[in-house]
Amino acid sequence: MADQKTLAEPGGDAPYRRMTRPMEGRLLGGVAQGIAAQLKLDPVVIRLMFVLLSVAGGLGAVAYAVLWMIAPREPYEGAPPPRDWSQLAAFSAIGVALLAFGWLTGASKGGIGMLPFAVGGIGALILWQQADPERRKGWVSGATKSIRGNRVRTLLGVTLVVIGAIGFLAAEGELADAQPGLLFTGVVVGGLTVIAAPWLAGLWKELQLERRERIRQEERAEVAAMVHDSVLHTLTLIQRVAHDPREVVRLARAQERDLRNWLYQPAQDADATLAAAVRRIAAEEEDAHGVAIEVVCVGDMDIDPGGRLAAMLKASRQAMVNAAKYSGSPTISVYAEVEGDEATIFVKDRGKGFDLDAVPLDRMGIRESIIGRMERHGGTARVRTEPGEGTEVMLTMKIAKD
Amino acid sequence: MTRVLIVDDHRLFRSGVRAELGDSIQVVGEAEDVETAVKAIAELQPDVVLLDVHMPGGGGQEVLRRVLGSGSQVRFLALSVSDAAEDVIGVIRGGARGYVTKNISGRELTDAIRRVAEGDAVFSPRLAGFVLDAFASSEAPSIDPELDSLTQREREVLRLIARGYAYKEIAKELFISVKTVETHVSSVLRKLQLSNRHELSRWATARRLV
């Protein structure tokens, strides 16, 4: 029963997703848990890493804060679950102990030398976290893309400028003097990047959110328009003609058909294929005569340019009109089938039927519009009827494939 | 007398069906979602469950899964407003013995319930069309030829159902008994439920439009 599963829940493979902060089981902001889920690691490992990095130079705390700001919170319904304060206390205790240990032994005097690593690390983290899965894959795969071309060019430019500047300074013999200044410029630029990045990222995210919201609203507007233009309209009409049951049924039926088509049928060009054309003709005749026409189509083919199917469709319309007008049957069944190069249409009613031989020659409906028309175009039409037994018109047409 | 449970989340519809069903049918209860349906089926043990396809809590397919999964022999007739191939084929493969749309007349519904109660299958013209379409022209090799294709006779029967013929008319048309028609339809139902045909699911998925 593997099939059944596919029917029930198709397309199961989850897309690679961006890091989110889960609400459940978080200690502080859910950042460590989010990273753990992303990297498929135990959250405890990540938490310990944050504690360790926070103690050694404060990088952990900064990174945590930044990630807290930029990672979206996982959707969670209901009241936020309480944090596990005992665990949080335990991690804090570990942090304090490490800090005390570092301070006592003097091991944490990383000084300014740690800063570039901190800046670089945070920058990389931000970029990685912010990037779309697609882009991330692009980075990893190393394929040459147009964006990449741009980036390479930028990188090349920056490298050249830096080399040029260094070369210039070296030639002037001032490189040694400029070194501290350069370092601090670098640090400042890095710092600004770190400060601005979350803000820019937030802005970008907001834009995306807005876009999604707009799309949703457009969809809602489309549904609203559909409901307003057709459903509300029909309901109003029904109230106004409530004294005429036949008209009420006709309106309800037409509305039902519209809604069904909108919900379940692909947007089809009624002039392009046989099934679509049969459906449209049935809908039109149903509307015109207030008799329900049930259409079932199996297989489909394009309307031929030679006009054979067009003739067949005209004949089928005539059969539907006859059934709706004269049979007295409350419903008409239409079945269109395409098998190989042969198209067949059946129009059946359960009405009063008639004696075919007694149909006068001048009754154009059956002889001319159905049988004659089909035969002129190389098809066949059979009418099967008996008084009291209903009528079935069978149309067959062979369409040679070119 | 056939004992029937009506499962539908629209109260109005439930009372409508109740009023329409003939005297040969006894409505023993109603349920409005998956949970109450599963409970009511276990308690009341009806002969036939009229099952709505779209319901809160997983819909008709979930009821089928839970009830039939527990080894119950209750028979289901799916009743829905939906024409979507996925819904139709979905509940049939979930174990329902028939599928009719909600605009069916009271007399036809009574007839369908009786048929399902007797262990036969009930195909609406549209379901017959879906099945013909799904089993049509396969070039892909089938895993189980017996299950994966329809016989000529089954195809004929389905085609007549799609054309709007009643079982009695089909029997007359093919010079066979009504019982034989029922046997053919049941056999198609079995194939539909058991076939692992690749195309069947692909077809239904391709028809998913909403």
Taking pLDDT < 50 over at least 5 consecutive residues as the criterion, the unreliable ranges of chain B are none
In CATH terms, the superfamily of the largest domain in chain B is: Response regulator
Distance between the termini of chain A: 41 Å
Q: What is the overall silhouette of chain A? A: elongated
Find the structural class of chain A using helix and strand composition: alpha+beta
Main beta-sheet annotation of chain A: 5 strands, mixed
Q: What is the C-level CATH assignment of the largest domain in chain B?
A: Alpha Beta
Instruction: Give the overall pLDDT of chain B as a whole number.
Output: 83
Q: Strand-residue fraction of chain B?
A: 5-15%
Summed up, the helix count of chain B is 11
In CATH, the topology of the largest domain in chain B is named: Rossmann fold
Instruction: Write down the Rg of chain A.
Output: 37 Å
Chain oligomer state:
heterodimer
Our estimate of the beta-strand percent of chain A is: 5-15%
How are strands sequenced across the largest beta sheet of chain A?
1-2-3-5-4
Count of spatially separate domains of chain B: 2
Task: Give the class of chain B from helix and strand content and strand pairing.
Answer: alpha/beta
Order of helices and strands of chain A: HHHHHHHHHHHEHEEHEE
CATH architecture of the largest domain in chain B: 3-Layer(aba) Sandwich
Short key terms for the protein model shown above:
heterodimer, A: 402 residues, alpha+beta, Heat Shock Protein 90, five-stranded mixed β-sheet, 62% helix, disordered N terminus, B: 210 residues, alpha/beta, Rossmann fold, Arc Repressor Mutant, subunit A, 2 domains, 11 helices, 14% strand
How does this model look, in words?
Chain A is an alpha+beta fold. In chain A, helix 3 crosses helix 4 and helix 6 packs parallel to helix 9. The longest helix of chain A is centred in the middle third of the chain and has 66 residues. Helix content of chain B is 54%, strand content 14%. In chain B, 49% of the residues are buried. In chain B, strands 2-1-3-4-5-6 form a six-stranded parallel sheet, with helices on both faces. Chain B is α/β, with parallel strands linked by helices. Chain B has two domains: 119 residues, Rossmann fold; 90 residues, Arc Repressor Mutant, subunit A (Orthogonal Bundle). Chains A and B meet through helix 1, helix 10, strand 1 and strand 2 of A and helix 4, helix 6 and helix 11 of B.
